[in-house]
Design a protein that fits this description.
Helix content: 40-55%
Radius of gyration: 28 Å
Strand content: under 5%
Strand order of the largest sheet: 1-2
Mean pLDDT: 77
Length: 366
Amino acid sequence: MKLDQIVKEIIKKSGPDKIIMEEALYDFVEPESDDFYDLYNKLELEGVTIIDETDLDAIKSFDDEDDDNDDLELFDGDDEDEGLIDDSEEEPDELSLSTLETDSINDEELLKIDLEMTQDIRVEDSVRLYLKEIGQIPLLKPDEERNLAIRVATGRLAQEQLDYFANNPDLEPNPEDILELEAQIDDAKIAKDHLVDANYRLVVSIAKKYDKGSVLFLDLIQEGNMGLMRAVDKFDYEKGYKFSTYATWWIRQAITRAIADQGRTIRIPVHMNETINKMSKIRRQLIQDLGREPTDEEIGEKMDLTHDRVQYIKRISREPLSLETPVGEEEDSSLGDFIPDPNAMTPHEYTTREALLKELDHDLGI
C-alpha cells in the first residue's frame, strides 16, 4: 500500500477528532523505520494527534461515596503508568479508565498556589496579576461541579437537536421547543464558563511542572486553558469521574504538545521529542551504573537502536546557536567571527590575485 493510501486509511480510523494510538501505525509500517517517520510526519501535517502509552495517564476512578473528598488528582509526569488504557480506544472520554497511583493535592494546598507563586521573585508581574485574578474565583464543591456538567451536557444535546432540525427542513418543530433549546444552549455556555473559571488553578498547578524555560510560563498556562476548555466540551459526568481528574489528561496533552511545537527554534516532531527524552534518561542511568559517559553502542543496546540511529538522534537533539552569540570573557567577539567562509580567499590566494591583476594592468597599459 502506498504512503498516501496509508495516510487516508489512518485518518479515517482516527475519527472526527483525529486522535490515534501510535501502535496503530505498526499495522502499516515497521516501528522506528524510515517509512515510519515519513508516515508520522505526514500524519502530523494532516493534523492527526498521535499518542502512545507514555502519553496516556490512566485516570483514577472515584466512587460516589468519594464525592465529599475535595482532593484534586494531579499527575507527576515522571510517574510510571499502571493498568494502561486499552489502546483500541482513541477518545479519552470513551476510554475504560483504570487505576493509577497519583499525587494528590487538596483544596487548601491548591488555594495556596497563587500565594506561593506570587512570592517567587522569578514570577513576572503579568503572571502575578493573572494569579491574583484567578485567586478570586472560588473552587467548586462536588455537587456544584456535577450540576454544571449536567447543564453543559444538556446544552450539548440541545445543540445537536437544533442542528438536526436545520439539516431537515421538512420537519416543523414547535417554536416554543426551539426557544427552549436555545435557552438551554445559552445556559450551557454560562455553565461552561463557570466550570472553566473554577479550574484555572488546576491548569497553573500542572503548568508549573513543565516550566523549564523553553516556553514562557504564561504561554503554558494559555495552552493548558485551551486543553481545559476542550475537556469541558467532552466531559461525560455519567461515567462517575471527577471533572478535575478528567481535565488533567487534556491539560497535560495541550501543554506537552505546545512544548514540542514551540520549545525549540527548529520544530521537532512529537514522537522524536519522546525518543530524545527517553535517550536522555537512559544516558543518565548508564552514567550512574557505569561511572562514565556511555558509548553510542551502549545507549543503542538499551534502546534497541543501531549505532547510526543513536548518532542521528543526538544530532537532532542539539540546540541551534546564533552566529551572534558572544564569545570570550569580554564578549567582544561573536561566534560568527570564528566560522570560516568557504568562499573567502586565503591571504596567499588574495596576494597572488592582486599581483596578477597589477601585472595585467601593467601589460595592458592601464
